[in-house]
């Protein structure tokens, strides 16, 4: 078996790409353990001592725990709803390729191409009528629009599966719901995990939606706490970076833990049959 030789140019490109991503992250993390004076004097140097007052001050002055619970609640409920709607829609479209379904698929494509910022005003008016402005449930309702993205990825994965599996189950007397629950869901588990990870990172890091629709301090998400720190600590960069690290830690751990499932889901969906 021939051993594949690595290209020096490719290695250099990868090192430069890693530096582009890693240096800003290093800059943020390192400066959370420095005083304001030390950060201004040598921002890229490692800290001379483990200075933890930035973290203590942030936890004392900012409702981190409440914002964390709000973010987890909104993210978890939204992901479950999106995966259920997306998988059901993909299964229904694949099960019946009628004219109505094809038209609906085209409309979903058009809706997916419309930027969310262009619909903020009409969406805000709708939430006002529903009395869901400044509520976590309103945020969840808005995030369920991400079901369209879930639908496209899950449908592509379903098309890679042999259709004979569903036909055999139908011949054996299984109904649409039984096929979906007992056959479709177990088979599409890899892509469900992959889509769930992508959508989790989107919701967790989203700023525009909660900034527009949430005003109460007790309902704000973690990202909004970072935004508030810009004004509150306009010259206190260590505190701002500390909040950024606190927001990043859960999603980084989550992404690292789920990285293998992301690759498996994408690779399995790319192989026909």
Number of domains: 1
SSE sequence, one letter per element = HHHHHHHHHHHHHH
Mean pLDDT across every amino acid position: 84
Question: What do we call the CATH homologous superfamily?
Answer: MetI-like
* CATH architecture field: Orthogonal Bundle
Helix % is: over 70%
Kindly name the structural category.
Answer: mainly alpha
CATH C-level category: Mainly Alpha
User: How many H/I helical runs?
Assistant: 14
The number of E-state strands comes to 0
Distance between the termini: 28 Å
Question: What gross morphology would you assign?
Answer: globular
- The stretches of 5 or more residues where confidence is low (pLDDT under 50) are none
Instruction: Give me the Rg, rounded.
Output: 23 Å
Largest sheet: none
- CATH fold naming: MetI-like fold
| Portion in beta strands | under 5%
Can you tell me about this structure?
- This protein is an all-alpha fold.
- The chain has one domain (58-270): MetI-like (MetI-like fold, Orthogonal Bundle).
- Helix content is 75%, strand content 0%.
- It is built from 14 helices and no strands.
- The chain has helices at residues 8-31, 36-41, 53-61, 64-95, 99-113, 120-130, 136-143, 147-159, 164-171, 176-187, 189-205, 208-213, 222-232, 237-270.
- Helix 3 crosses helix 14.
- The longest helix has 34 residues, at 237-270.
- It is globular, with a radius of gyration of 23 Å.
- It starts with 7 loop residues before the first helix and ends with a helix.
Summarize the structure.
With 273 residues, the protein is mostly helical.
């Amino acid at each position: 078996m021939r051993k594949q030789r690595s290209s020096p140019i490719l290695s250099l490109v990868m090192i430069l790409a890693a530096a582009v991503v890693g240096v800003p992250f290093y800059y943020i993390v390192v400066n959370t353990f420095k005083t304001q004076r030390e950060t201004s004097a040598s921002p890229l140097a490692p800290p001379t001592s483990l200075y933890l007052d930035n973290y203590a001050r942030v936890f004392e002055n900012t409702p981190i725990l409440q914002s964390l619970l709000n973010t987890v609640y909104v993210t978890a409920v939204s992901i479950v709803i999106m995966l259920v709607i997306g998988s059901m829609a993909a299964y229904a479209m694949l099960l019946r390729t009628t004219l109505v379904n094809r038209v609906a698929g085209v409309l979903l494509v058009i809706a997916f191409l419309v930027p969310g910022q262009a619909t903020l005003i009409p969406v805000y008016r709708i939430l006002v009528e529903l009395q869901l402005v400044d509520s976590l449930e309103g945020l969840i309702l808005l995030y369920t629009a991400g079901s369209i993205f879930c639908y496209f990825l899950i449908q592509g994965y379903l098309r890679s599966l042999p259709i004979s599996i569903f036909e055999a189950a139908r011949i054996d007397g299984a109904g649409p719901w039984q096929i979906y629950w007992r056959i479709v869901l177990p088979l599409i588990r890899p892509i469900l995990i992959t889509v769930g990870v992508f959508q989790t990172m989107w919701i967790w890091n989203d700023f525009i939606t909660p900034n527009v629709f949430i005003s109460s301090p007790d309902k704000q998400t973690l990202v909004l706490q970072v935004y508030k720190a810009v004004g509150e600590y306009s010259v206190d960069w260590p505190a701002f970076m500390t909040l950024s690290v606190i927001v990043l830690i859960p999603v980084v751990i989550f992404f690292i833990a789920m990285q293998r499932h992301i690759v498996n889901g994408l690779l399995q969906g790319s192989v026909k049959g």
